[in-house]
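Quality-control log, excerpt.
Job 1 of 2 completed; input and output follow.
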Amino acid sequence: MSVNRPAPPGAVLGAILIFIGLAFLAFRYLDVLASADVWPLFIIGPGLVLFVLGLILPNVGMIIGGSVVLTIGTVLAWQNMTGRWESWAYVWALVGPTASGVG
């Protein structure tokens, strides 16, 4: 009699990393992310992945970390679009206390 066991976490993480690597390879060869305006997506993406994984797996640390990284990526995307880099002088309050508190 066989028992259905879920895939070990290491195998799932390995499959995710392989998928991310293949996506980066495809983006490189297809010049999808060649624009200078898309670099904040490399911060928003992992933050979103951490946040969603923290919701799927009951892990508060991943939710807090994901919300902080996601907030940093969103703030950097806004600053990149508007050119208002000096706003970091007061926007840091969104990142540290607010994002971790919301998470």
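Job 2 of 2 completed; input and output follow.
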Amino acid sequence: MKPIILKLARDDLKEIHNRLVEFGNIPPKKFRDSFTTFCANITSIPFMYPEYELNSRYRKAVIKYDYIVFYKIEKINNKDRARIYRVLHGKQDILPLLNADVE
């Protein structure tokens, strides 16, 4: 079962893609491949990545180019299912952005 990518995370992914295309020094495909691998990992092993130490509501995974995916594992129809909340660069001020998540 594929993870659920929430609106803010979809917006983050679009912004990342646009930024990678604009600056041209990093191929967007490498980032997409890394994100796809992450999604496959949490589909098969949802608790693979650790809780985020500054906000334990989320788990975090660092993927290509210092981007961090923040997600939660929730029970949906008695099955664990990952919901991806944000995809942020490690240099961003992360806590305010995480606290602004909206479903």
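Post-run check on job 2. The mean pLDDT is 91.
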